[in-house]
Amino acid sequence: MSDLLEQRAGVRVLVCDPTGPPIATERDALDLIGAAFLGAAVVAVPAERLDPSFFSLGTRFAGEIMQKFVNYRLRLVVVGDISRHLAASAALRALVTESNRHDHVWFVPDLDALDARLGRA
User: Fold this and answer.
1) Burial bucket for residue 70 (CB in 10 Å: 0-12, 13-18, 19+)
2) How many domains does the chain have?
């Protein structure tokens, strides 16, 4: 499967392939943003595609990536099980909780949860 532009709950979503290239640099994130300009409002990135440094907030990688998406007015959704990262970091737990209260960056366990969230938004 490659990255697909899909209509989900009435919203155009770029659903990224879990086996696609890792997102390990700012350039990788910008490539996704460029792909989203084909008409997506949301980019759904499988958690396993994100470099582990994304979940280690001291690296600032998550903040840089999240800010890029906000600047380009795209919603970033991290899809998948990040429980081991959450267990290791109170700061990450706080970030996820706060992000999920707003509209720019969401963390959801699966695409069904994304659909439910989009339906409520």
Assistant:
1) middle
2) 1
